[in-house]
Amino acid sequence: MDNATCVETSAAQYSTQFRFEEHAVTNFSYQVGGRAEIVSLNLGEDKSIGKPLNKTEYDFYETAVKSLPCNLQDYIPCYRGVVEIKNGKPATLQRLRTKRKGCYIVLEDVTSTFKKPSIMDLKMGTRQYSDTMPPEKIARKKKRSLMTTSNELGVRVAGIRSYNSTESCGHYHMDKMQGRELTTDSIQSAFRMFFFDGNEIHVAAIERILQKLRNIIELIKLCDSVRLYCCSLLLVYESDKTAKLNYKTDIRIIDFAEFQTQSGDGVRYDGPDEGFLRGLESLVRLLGNLVDVGNVKTKDKIMKIEEEEEGEEEDDEDGEKS
Known about the structure:
Layout: H1 3-6, E1 16-18, E2 25-27, E3 39-43, E4 46-52, H2 55-62, H3 70-73, E5 79-85, E6 102-108, E7 117-124, H4 135-147, H5 149-153, E8 155-163, E9 171-174, H6 176-181, H7 187-195, H8 203-220, E10 232-238, E11 249-254, H9 274-321
Parallel strand pairs: 1-5
Antiparallel strand pairs: 2-3, 3-4, 4-6, 5-6, 7-8, 7-10, 8-9, 10-11
Helix pairs in contact: 8-9
């Protein structure tokens, strides 16, 4: 069932927890990937987002997620139910890029605890289709995977929005079409630009993300029969150096519309999702390379500062002698 069909579904079929009239709907300004439009929902203290309801994803959040290792659930957005949006109320809905009505899955807004979140959306896995897709769509997905970094690395850039002082708008952007043009060699530069603020590479943030990636790898290995087809990985780090949250990071697995535990003919899959694991392992390698580069640049910068300070001390000594 595609999103166009899903959003027209009546909320009466689902465990709707919120009434539309109780909160406002606005554009979600931090969406960097994905085809379906994400909306921001004001639910009081809990900052939430809404995405058009997909039956498979709804079933995942309602039931399947509970069968995953508890620690892995920490890397999945908190599910808050389903809300029905009726077209035209409130007026802010009219300002959306497309006027939508119907059911939305409500999830926590992962960016809400950041002052200046830099965000990267990564399409994960070597296989980008499920058995429930039409044959022509499967063929198209296979071809796209073969032509991008998904095939060899198991990861593809779907979108980037990061703070960078050298950019005229103050941000570095990359969309999914640009991400598809990246090769196994040039993708390293995309990660470098994501963690580069115009002055230095955020090595501390990378190291924290690497630690979380290694945790996720071990947890995915425990997920027998789980297939995370078409899932994405969201990377977020704090870009506000003045904030006490400096180098705060977050990683979440998102987009479960093609989640499966068995093949189309009903045969249960065996073992973990090797394609998803390949993507995670590629990420560890790519980010590890950045840490090495960042540490070298930081070391060079420190040495330069020390040299300048030594030069100033020598000038002071010469001045005292004269």
